[in-house]
Design goal:
Elements: H1 6-26, E1 31-35, H2 59-78, E2 81-87, E3 90-91, H3 107-116, E4 122-124, E5 130-131, E6 134-135, H4 136-148, E7 153-157, E8 163-164, H5 165-176, E9 183-185, H6 203-209, H7 217-226
Parallel strand pairs: 1-2, 2-7, 3-6, 4-9
Antiparallel strand pairs: 5-8
């Protein structure tokens, strides 16, 4: 939406944000917790701290950074507590497979759904790109703590650990008892825009609230795959009772 129609993107993601905060303020709310994004950090294998210099390469990133600046405005001008949360690759989500999001579902949900149905998950490039995958339950806990502590500013919500997509496919296959190979295609996203690696430094919110991730990636994969165990097509299961 942002690149196809920058004006509409700004209206939805920036003006819409300001409208919501202003209505909340008018209604007597003095604490707002809102979503920002990790992608403004660019590609980094080292943990990204909130204070590092950031840049924007897409309209989406520009809109999120604009939210943070408007959050700063509401904080300074109206003395509100405005906590912008930079989420790192949230997964699991609605119904496990995030079917309602289609192609915009998180990659864990997409890969698990493909593999469980005997279809090859599609990986861009060679599958070595990494993500700091953060389970949605940890994200929700972080949001609740940010509100309870009336945090102000921007905070990372991530685990500080990253996994490449090839490993993710292997882990899902192992958990489901399947042996579905990935399909590799040329990355259709320009290299100047595509974020290849992400990793969070979550020490800021940890120091402020005591938050830390509780769901290990192994456990998260188990939770995502759990709904598929009784639904696997026979042709996707490994031989010799390994399913």
């Amino acid at each position: 939406m942002h690149e196809d129609n920058p004006c509409r993107g700004a209206r939805v993601n920036v003006e819409g944000f300001v409208n919501v905060v202003e209505q909340a303020r008018t209604d007597g709310c003095d604490t707002v917790v809102y979503a920002s994004t990790l992608s403004i950090y660019g590609s980094r294998t080292e943990p990204s701290p909130e204070e590092m210099d950031v840049t924007v390469n897409t309209g989406y990133e520009a809109s999120k950074l604009a939210r943070e600046r408007y959050g700063e405005y509401f904080s300074n001008h109206y003395d509100m507590s405005m906590a912008g949360m930079r989420f790192f690759s949230v997964y699991q989500g609605y119904g496990g497979a995030e079917g309602h999001k289609g192609e915009y579902a998180n990659v864990i949900a997409q890969f698990a759904d493909d593999i469980a149905n005997g279809e090859s998950p599609v990986l861009y490039g060679d599958g070595t790109q990494t993500r700091d995958f953060t389970h949605v339950s940890d994200i929700v806990r972080g949001l609740e703590l940010a509100a309870e502590h009336q945090l102000d500013g921007v905070y990372n919500l991530g685990t500080g650990e990253s996994y490449d997509f090839n490993t993710v496919v292997e882990m899902i296959n192992e958990e489901l008892g399947t042996d579905v190979e990935a399909e590799y295609i040329e990355n259709p996203i320009p290299e100047s825009v595509y974020v290849h690696d992400t990793c969070a430094d979550y020490s800021k919110i940890g120091d402020a609230t005591g938050w830390e991730p509780e769901i290990s990636f192994d456990e998260g994969i188990r939770r995502v795959c759990a709904e598929y165990h009784d639904e696997l097509p026979a042709e996707t299961q490994l031989a010799d009772g390994q399913s």
